[in-house]
Each structure stands twice: as structure tokens, then as C-alpha cells.
Request: fold
Amino acid sequence: METIVPMLTRQSLDLRQQQTLVLTPQLQQSIKVLQLSGAELEQELAQALLDNPLLERLDVQTDVAAEPLPEAASGEAESSWASLEFPKHQGDSDDPDWTPESAIAQDLAAYLSEQLGLLRLSDRDRALAQLLIDELDDNGYLPVSLEEVLDCLPDELDIDESDLRCALAQVQSLDPAGVGARDLAECLDLQLMQQAQQLEPALLDCARYLVREHVGILASPSQLRQRCAGRYSAELVERAHHLVLKLDPKPGRAWTQDVSAYVVPDVLLIRGKDNWQAALNPLAVPRLQLVNLHDYEIEAHPALLAERQKATGLLRSVNSRFVTILRVAQAIVQMQQDFFTQGVSALKPMQLADLAAELDLHESTISRATRQKYMQTPHGVMELKQFFTVALASADGKADLSAASVRAQIAQMIRDESPAKPLSDQQITDLLQAQGLTLARRTVAKYREAEGLAPASQRKMRAAAGV
Reply:
């Protein structure tokens, strides 16, 4: 027989000491504001202006001449941004919130619909053609078969496949040439047929044969000559091949590119007497202040007291954000002086850890202060992240070249090459090694692809075709 021993429970109090890292609400807000982009910050402040009755925006426009922000104080936040003392801007518009509007983009479907409206078609045919236009993808192809489109139509409309084929022919007659094709071969064939009046009959026949029968090997001229031997002469095949290479395999891509968005740089680059200097862009700095109320009016309403604390904390966070961005930008400019004068080839290797050690900040703070933050430079508007690049060791062991400068050097070699004899990746590797830079061929290929440059074989083929 087992003996059951009762379990004794006892309550006690223990006193222990331990250290924990706690993020205060103010610190959490500062981190959140710092990592916001300029557009996101504007949205955040617009929402705060709607929610907080004690926060208002100063109706003052500023000029592009910027002054550095004062160092953040450790005490209470400033109740306004008047201490920045930006000069007033005499704009052409009386509206202080005026900004240039981007052009309204017209997509491919709208462009084709406009042309369709100019054709003399019955309402039935026009509706079917518009239905097919709505089914086109971004490249101008029809990704679904006519049978699938027919299955989606109600039977009472009494539409058969021949009606859809007629509607598709109307769509394929529109500009750009090749739109409405169901595959690459049909797309190229449609473009050739629109050029039929300007081409020799033999050349047109050979080119159409290439795109219909050998579209999969268009990148290999030698295979094309072998497949067409006995049917067409080698000279005619070469001419037809060059003609096909000039066609557009994606006729709708011109309408799918994103509209360029305006980027307001957070930092401006100013040329001093001896060097470049960074300054905040006053157009990117929001001008906010607390509503001027007496203390007894706020203390009489506890809700207003809480709103004032929120507004004060927000102003402190925004001020800290721009102080940090300016410090980081000034350090970057100081380290990359040669880049602004000489270009990408003079970009020095720099890591987040290097800047963090110099400014006595954490790497995560540097990362937040450079992500989606932009600087106006002589080479265009650049994200601060672009100034960070890894170092590549030269043959003598010195890490004095950045990956970005090597990429620019490779691109320059390809631009200076002979079109008839383009440089291969191995030849570029040998040239870099002759200059004292040890680099693998696959690394050269990776950098070449990052610059958007084709391999040597494709560059030679395009040069021969005059593309």
C-alpha cells in the first residue's frame, strides 16, 4: 500500500535587484518619428493636427537657403520652430500649400479605348473589342484564350468565337503595333505585318518565318542559319534576324511605367569656400507650434493638459529627428568630399559601424536616419543609404576602393569598348587585375548585371543589328 505524502505550499516575499531596458513612451515616439520618410512624416503630422487642438502649423513659407538646426536641448521642447529663423520665400502662388502636380498617367487600356472610339463599329463589335482591351495585361498581351472569354459571356447574347476573332482583329490593328497578341510569336508577326508596305517581300517572308517557327532561338544567330539553310540564303537570314531584333517584344510596357514622384530632399548640399557642407532643407522641415493658452485655462481642463503633453512630446521628437538627420548628413558629407566633385568613381567605402562610432550613435539609429532620407547633390537627389558601400581589397591589401566605384569603372569600360569586339567578363576581370584589383569573374558579372548591362554576346548582336 502506497503512502501519500501531502504537498505543502508556502507563500513568501523575495527582494531582488535586476536591470532591464525599458523604452519610455517618449523614446518610442522618437524612434518612430526618426524612421519615417518625409511623406510619411507629413501624413503623421497632418493627423496630429486634426487630433490635437493644442497643435497648429505656422503659415510661413521658406526659401531654399537652409541653416543648420541648433543642437537639441535636454530640457523642455521648444513650443515653436521660430528659432530656426528661415528667411521668407516669395513664391509665385498665394496658396501656402501649393505644390506642383504630377501629370495624370494614361494607361494602355485608356489609350486603346480612345482609338477604338474613332473606328466606325457597331455597338456590339465595340463592346466586344472593349471587353478584350480590358483583358490585356501590362505588356499588351491577351493572357486568356477566346474560348475562356466566350465561356464567361451569357448565352442569350448569341456570341460565337468568330465574333470574338473579329473583335480581336480590331484590337490588334490599334497602336502600338503588336498589342492584343496571345504570345511572343504573334506579337512580333503583327509588328512585321504593319511594316509590310516598307519591306521587301522576301525579307518579310523570311522574318515572319523566323518569328513563327524559330522564336525560341532568336538569340542564337548560328542556330538560325542552320535551321534556315536550304530555305533562305545566309545573307537574307541575317538581315531578317536584324529586323526582328528591332521589334518590341512588350508593346505595352511604355504605359506601365510608374509616374515619377516628386522627392523633397531632406538635406541640401552647399558649396563652401574649401569644402561641401550639409544643411537642412527648410521646405522639408515642418513648422509647428503649441496654441498659445494660459496655464490656468489648461489646468482647468484635464483633457487639455494631456493634449499639451502629447503635443510637447511630438515637437520634441520631430526636433530630435532633424537634429539626428543633420548630424548624420554632415558626417557623410565630411567623409565623401571627393564624391561630390569627382563622381561615383571617388566614392569611399563606408559602413554603418564607421559612422556610428564617429557620432557615438547606435547602428540602428544611423540606419533609421538614412533610410528614405534624401540629399540634393551635384549628381542628383540621392538617398543617404546610397553612400554606404562595402570595401574591396586591392592586390597590395589596401581596402581603398568601394564596390560602387568598381561598378562605375566596369560600366565605363563597357561604354568605351568597341561595338564590334565587346569585352567579355573575363577580359574585364583581367583588366581590373592589371590595375591591382583582385576580383572574381562572377563578381564582375554580378556588377555588370546590377548596372543593367547585357553580356558581351548580346551587346555584339545588338551592335550588329544597329539596336
Summary: The CA atoms of residues 79 and 289 lie 5 Å apart. Residues 302-335 form the longest helix (34 residues). The longest strand covers residues 267-271.
